[in-house]
Automatic annotation (TrEMBL):
The keyword Repressor does not apply. It comes from marine metagenome. Residues 227-431 form the Peptidase M1 membrane alanine aminopeptidase domain. Keywords: Aminopeptidase, Hydrolase, Metal-binding, Metalloprotease, Protease, Zinc. This is Uncharacterized protein. SUPFAM superfamilies: Leukotriene A4 hydrolase N-terminal domain, Metalloproteases ('zincins'), catalytic domain. The keyword Ligase does not apply. GO terms for cellular component: cytoplasm; extracellular space; membrane.
Length: 533
């Protein structure tokens, strides 16, 4: 699929004369030589290119088209693919929590091929149009801007499509247009008995809530915040919002949230009327994805942490901004415990993969893409400092805006954006390309003869992985008269280096410490056992 318009015309009625129950789809695409589809969808008839019928084969999840003449590099070719059937994945057709029949896309990670002819990979971004005809009681949501809504009598529709009419049934044609290229898993389609709230704008872009009509009052209340506030925060700290609108959509195709561009899907049970903390945080996370994962997209399945880790960390950053430092630390600490628990079971798991295969939900994403990816960014920020970190983040977003990036791309930006350039190769390697995390044992003592604090630090590498990086420490010493505004003690902030095996650090201090606190501000992912000798 090349950059260009993909137009999908969907008939969700399922006529009596259809060969199989379900839907009939006419897809018009600008594509190169290969389309991904999947049985039990069946290609109907021929595959024409601008009126010329072409030979094709459809096996497993590949549609291969034999071209009448070779393509030249960059050439755009137009094909029409007509197919029918009931997708086994990718498009969820069934009853929602209220017993109403609904239709919702469920594309992550590579399930779009189950119902759309597409190159189903993160690196292949395309614009899209969805033209959907459905019974008039349905409202239809998709990516981008609403171009047309037209009510059609049954007779008009039958005449336009050369089919038998369905007496007493009126229809609505809905046309959405996504003008900014997005990855295939971000294509969205939802059809249900929706109530819709157009409750405001951000940067002249419409903010919308789509919930089941039974949940109208509660849903409009739940989704009104923190959408606009989060969008402003991310725009101010990262860069401009890439898309035409933002809609929060209640659906039955996801359990939590799915960041489809401009139309975020949330589970049936997301609407409570109570603005719960859990769903508040999910909303923030999915909005963060509009920047990380959607506008800047990983180039390959090996680098999914560039989406999930970033969205997780920026959720925490917004929580700190909006709800305070304690809320931020609560989330950071909870994520740390999840990491500890995970690596107790899977010590060899790496965040960046190497030619991941097979591709599936269980292989592409684990909690560590989220939590350890987030912690990596937090440690990077702590190690290189605020100015370098934020200069790099904004430059990375600007350079790969509406494009794709790899982990190496991100590293190079963070190394070179801020002067002087630094080398982050080892830091990235030890945290992203190997398993485990540091497990440390420490003791300290005061050497009165030399006025030195002696710290012995041992890295316990039972899993075979070792780490090297600075650890901030706070050395608590008695306050002298006139120091600390009457405080009984004061903290001297220093730094020691975590190294493989056993190491000893001596720090000159003019007073005997009362306590040594490792990583007092929570910058390092580690387990630490410490005592005074």
């Amino acid at each position: 699929m090349t950059d260009g318009v993909e137009s999908f015309e969907l008939d969700l009625v399922g006529r009596n004369d259809a060969p199989e129950a379900g839907m009939i789809v006419n897809a018009v695409g600008e594509i190169v030589d290969e389309l991904g589809s999947r049985k039990p969808l069946t290609i109907t008839g021929s595959v024409p290119e601008e009126g010329t019928e072409l030979e094709f084969t459809h096996a497993a999840d590949r549609l291969r088209i034999i071209l009448a003449e070779p393509s030249s590099r960059g050439q755009v070719r137009r094909f029409r693919v007509q197919y029918h059937g009931t997708p086994d994945r990718g498009l969820v057709i069934g009853e929602n929590m209220h017993g109403d029949r609904t239709f919702f896309s469920d594309n992550w990670p590579n399930w779009a091929r189950n119902w759309l002819p597409t190159i189903d990979h993160p690196y292949e971004k395309a614009t899209a149009e969805m033209v959907v005809t459905a019974p008039i009681h349905y409202r239809v949501i998709s990516n981008g801007l609403l171009v047309e809504e037209t009510n059609l009598a049954a007779e008009e529709l039958a005449k336009a499509q050369s089919t038998a009419s369905m007496p007493g049934q009126d229809f609505r044609l809905t046309h959405w247009k996504q003008s900014v290229p997005i990855a295939s898993w971000l294509f969205a389609l939802g059809a249900a008995r929706f109530a819709v709230d157009y409750y405001g704008e951000f940067d002249k872009k419409s903010l919308q809530t789509w919930v089941y009509i039974q949940d109208r009052e509660k849903g409009f209340y739940d989704f009104a915040v923190p959408t606009k506030q989060a969008m402003k925060f991310f725009s101010d700290t990262i860069g401009p919002y890439a898309y035409e609108k933002l809609a929060n959509v209640q659906s039955n195709s996801v359990g939590g949230g799915m960041e489809a561009a401009t139309a975020i899907f949330y589970g049936d049970n997301s609407v409570t009327g109570e603005r719960t903390v859990r769903w508040r945080n999910v909303i923030i996370h999915e909005i963060a994805h509009q920047w990380w994962g959607n506008a800047v997209t990983e180039a390959d399945w090996d680098d999914v942490w560039l989406s999930e880790g970033f969205a997780t960390y920026f959720t925490l950053l917004y929580r700190e901004y909006a709800y305070g430092r304690d809320d931020f630390l609560e989330g950071l600490t909870a994520d740390k415990q999840r990491i500890i628990n995970f690596y107790a079971e899977r010590p060899d798991y790496t965040i960046v993969h190497d030619n991941l295969d097979p591709i599936g939900r269980d292989t592409v994403t684990t909690g560590m893409m989220y939590q350890k990816g987030s912690w990596f960014l937090h440690m990077l920020r702590g190690m290189i400092g605020e100015d370098r970190f934020w200069s790099g983040i904004r430059a990375y977003y600007r350079l790969y805006y509406n494009s794709n990036a790899t982990t190496d791309d991100f590293r190079e930006v963070m190394e070179n954006t801020y002067e002087p350039a630094i080398d982050l190769t080892d830091f990235f390697r030890q945290w992203l390309n190997q398993g485990g995390f540091p497990n440390l044992r420490s003791n300290w003592e005061w050497d009165g003869a030399t006025n030195e604090l002696v710290i012995r630090l041992e890295q316990i590498d039972d899993d075979g992985y070792v780490f090297e990086m600075p650890i901030p420490i706070a050395i608590m010493v008695p306050a002298r008269r006139g120091e600390g505004r009457g405080a009984r003690s004061q903290a001297l902030v220093r730094e020691i280096i975590m190294r493989p095996g056993m190491s000893e650090t001596r720090i000159e201090i003019d007073r005997e410490p009362t306590e040594v606190v490792f990583d007092p501000d929570h910058w390092v992912l580690m387990q630490m056992e410490s005592n005074r000798r």
